[in-house]
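Below is a filled-in request sheet from our internal design queue. Each sheet records the structural input a requester submitted and the sequence that came back. We keep these sheets so that new team members can see what a complete request looks like end to end.

REQUESTER: design group, bay 2
PRIORITY: normal
MODE: inverse folding
CHAIN LENGTH: 401
BACKBONE (tokenized):
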């Protein structure tokens, strides 16, 4: 009986509380509607007058390095190997690339039209009024330790303007350099009506690069695809498009210059090595011919020829690994998985070569000597042809503008 009574009391209490709540809402309906309306109005005003943020996108394909077929095969059996795009992503976000864009587009000078405070810019955008613009090619402020400082430019006509700053007022002309102890300024073009006012903000190179890095993002499209998606956000759609195009151009030009420098060094190395390799090959051929004449033209048995072919094949792969090691040593440290994989591949080939040499040691002395001399000739010839082909490739690449 007591249990039933408690349940009834709880139900009545809940009904009373709900009714009281509804009553409170009705009693304060004006306040609730007013507060809700105010927040809706604020949200609407913000949506109408807030500065829109635009995004510009671009795609970049990371080219596979020349001669990296061996590295590709190694990467297939090493799932944790760092993709080739990782260092390229770091390069794109580096100060070297972004700093070049800051210099090319004079991003240390930020030009913004002056509007009526708070609502002026949004109102002009709602009315479809396009703001005027000016083009500044050079701008520096002297005698300030701040990362950011500003001056104001007022348009007099299409060819003349007035600069006001910290305690000074200077008149300038389009196309002419304006310089005094406080500033250096050159305005290339004015597309604004008389009386238009612009704020020109100067920021240090480091701050301009940091701001660009903050708004610039890179992602790889898919795993190990080599396709990079670049995005840049900002308030000026034309400017961010221009900046992103400049970044991709600087990246591509830097890659071309870097590859050209590497090719030039490789070609210089090959030009020095080829005469020596050719000389060693001639000596090896002379030794083989002399030995055969001494032993009345001794030929290799079928078994010895088979072993010789295997040894030459292994040595060719070892030589190829040596060439590739010189390339990846410029990209990775010895602790990198790709570098370690190459070393493991070399060890496997070296073990195979040792087994073949053991077979050779079990052959008759004459066969051993002929095989050794023949191996020197075949390996030397293969190395010489590899170097010669590479020299021709690099020579042709250097001729292409």
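RETURNED SEQUENCE:
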């Amino acid at each position: 009986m007591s249990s039933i009574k408690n349940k009834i009391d709880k139900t009545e209490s809940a009904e009373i509380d709900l009714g009281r709540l509804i009553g409170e809402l009705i009693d304060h309906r004006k306040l609730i509607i007013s507060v809700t309306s105010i927040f809706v109005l604020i949200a609407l005003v913000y949506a109408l007058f807030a500065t829109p943020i635009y995004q510009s996108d671009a795609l970049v394909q990371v080219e596979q390095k020349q001669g990296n077929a061996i590295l590709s095969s190694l990467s297939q059996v090493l799932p944790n190997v760092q993709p080739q795009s990782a260092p390229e992503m770091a390069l794109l976000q580096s100060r070297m690339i972004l700093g070049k864009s800051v210099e090319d587009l004079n991003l240390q000078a930020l030009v913004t039209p002056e509007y009526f405070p708070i609502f002026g810019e949004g109102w002009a955008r709602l009315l479809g009024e396009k703001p005027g613009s000016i083009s500044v090619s050079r701008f520096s402020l002297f005698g300030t330790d701040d990362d950011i400082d500003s001056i104001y430019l007022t348009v007099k006509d299409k060819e003349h303007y007035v600069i006001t700053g910290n305690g000074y007022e200077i008149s300038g002309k389009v196309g002419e350099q304006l310089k005094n102890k406080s500033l250096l300024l050159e305005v290339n073009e004015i597309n604004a009506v008389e009386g238009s006012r612009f704020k020109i903000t100067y920021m240090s190179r480091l701050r301009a690069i940091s701001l660009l890095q903050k708004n610039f993002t890179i992602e790889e499209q898919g795993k190990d695809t080599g396709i990079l998606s670049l995005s840049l956000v900002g308030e000026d759609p034309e400017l961010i498009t221009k900046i992103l195009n400049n970044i991709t151009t600087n990246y591509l030009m830097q890659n071309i210059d870097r590859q050209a420098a590497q090719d030039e060094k490789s070609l210089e190395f090959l030009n020095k090595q080829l005469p020596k390799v050719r000389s060693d090959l001639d000596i090896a051929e002379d030794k083989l011919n002399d030995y055969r004449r001494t032993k009345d033209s001794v030929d290799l048995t079928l078994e010895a020829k088979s072993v010789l072919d295997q040894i030459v094949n292994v040595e060719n792969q070892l030589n190829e690994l040596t060439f590739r090691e010189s390339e990846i040593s410029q990209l990775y440290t010895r602790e990198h998985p790709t570098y370690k994989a190459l070393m493991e591949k070399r060890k496997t080939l070296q073990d195979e070569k040792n087994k073949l040499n053991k077979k050779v040691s079990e052959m008759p002395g004459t066969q051993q000597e002929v095989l050794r001399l023949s191996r020197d000739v075949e390996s030397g010839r293969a190395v010489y042809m590899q170097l010669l082909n590479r020299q021709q490739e690099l020579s042709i690449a250097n001729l292409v503008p």
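SHEET NOTES:
- Residues 261-399 form one domain.
- Residues 1-5, 66-82 have pLDDT under 50 and may be disordered.
FILED BY: M.R.
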